[in-house]
Amino acid sequence: MANKLISYIRESRDELRKVIWPSRQETIRHTLLVVGVSVTVAIVLGIADYVFTIGFEKLLLKVT
Hints:
Elements: H1 2-18, H2 24-63
């Protein structure tokens, strides 16, 4: 069992050495993109929620 664990750790280390890690600039750019998209989606969903809330309130006032 110890041999399997050691083999797994060695293979994992070898695979990690093959990874092409993004540069600092790429990481910053992708992070800003994710934040921008997240803020945009939050704004759109917030506006949709507001519009539906107003719409349902008006609908309920007409029904009662």
